[in-house]
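Model the whole thing, not chain by chain.
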Amino acid sequence: MTTTANTETAAPTQAVHWDLHYDIHLGETWSQFMEGLRQKKILATGCSSCVRVFVPPQAYCESCFEPTDGWRELPHEGTLEVFTVAWHGFTGGPQAPYAIGAIRLDGASTLLMHWVVGVDFTPGADVREQLPFGTRVRAVWAEERTGQILDIAHFEPVG
Amino acid sequence: MKPPIGRGAAQRAVAPVHVVGAASTRFLPEHDAMLDELVFEAVYKALRECGLRKQDLGLSVLASMDVLDGRSISSGLTNSAAGGYLGDSFRVEGDAGLAIVCAAQAIASGDVEVAVAVGVYNPERSGGAATRRAFVEQVSNLGFEPHFDRPIAMTANASYALQAGYGLVDRTVADYATLAADEISRGGGLERSLRRFAATQDDVLASVPIAWPLHELMLPAYSTGAVAIVLASPARAGRCLGRDARLTGLGHATGGYTWPGEWLTDPGATSRRAARMALAQAAVSPDQIELAEISAPTPALHRPYVDALGVGGETTINASGGLRSNFPGLANGALRLLEVVDLLSVRPRGTTAVSHSVDTETGIVSEDVTLLVAEAI
């Protein structure tokens, strides 16, 4: 532990570091989804009461409060509902700039958040003009897949 | 027993709770202080204002968050400073608005006669504004779902930017800048403001781009400090010095997660649920609200929140400059009520106001909203 003076306020502080490792459980539903990703499959669950299709898959429908009933495979394409370009990252995060999008896969009722490519990060560029909302996008698979959401490397514009 | 005064008294669903004390520390970009020192200062001043002592408190409720405080039970440090030594106390990891709701409910239910709610915010990360923002965003990222949203760098600012982008269908980035400039300028001359200047639309658009389409001056003016609110039952308030306001409605609601998408398509939904609850309790309609402090973290959320509360027209909204002028993180809910109570002190008896606050840990996603209805007495 070291005591230092903060350069902005001259306030003395002591550096403290937390280093905690977690093994966060996936559960049955998400384990199956992640195994699907390893095989280049995007799997969803559905609710027969309200006919919503969930991806990420859900074990139960939060609205109907009924168990979901069965799996289906979704296409790898969908619609980019909205995206943003983060010009500033955060401690421990990816190097900025990067683009995050909300994608509605064909056949899904829900949004999947993921990286989006195809945006010019030049300062001052009109990012929305380059990638209008509603653009068709498709999943680009990582070469090495380990059963995690980044098995989809990112989404890219179709065509 | 005399009937309660004010609008809607005959239909009111809950007993009113009086605000008898309200005080804060100074608001600074970073406090050179231990958390308990900030909490003590705010609670001490709020109790002094109403002539009460620590021994009069039946309950202390603190709003703080371990991961920001760098202590795994940070309330262990601040409990005594909140007046909780050998008393009844607990902590909520969220916005101070929720602490006020908890304290007020304890009084309304008859459990205690006097309670204090206090929020404290001084993230334990030094090194300048950019470093602190990167730290708060890191904490925000940890608040997101770890398998799907955390790996792709979702944070509060990313969610706000996504919502602001989605809202560009019927508004422009220039509209956002104009609203931000108006709020900064409105608060620029006020003592509690962090941004002590007037701003133009061009100033806002020239400020640092954070996440498209948001610029730095569109985001809250982050400050640090503590705010305490002392509440009392009507009977106990009659024997107190201090403030002339009471809470007549307490609303609280929580939003959903990323995948349903309501945070994009209907960002006012959670506020609407909280408002419905609070206004029903207070038996007032939106058109009776004359003053409102609304916590919109971005200009893109201003209109959805205003519409959700149903205010507008003659309502004075964010006379303080809102979050564009001062946003003390988890203490914000108490600051918004402090602003409201200050405004009510010079208004006629029966004037109705609302204090709206949100937690910002995961931005507009899973948003936690509190709405308090206050009345001048």
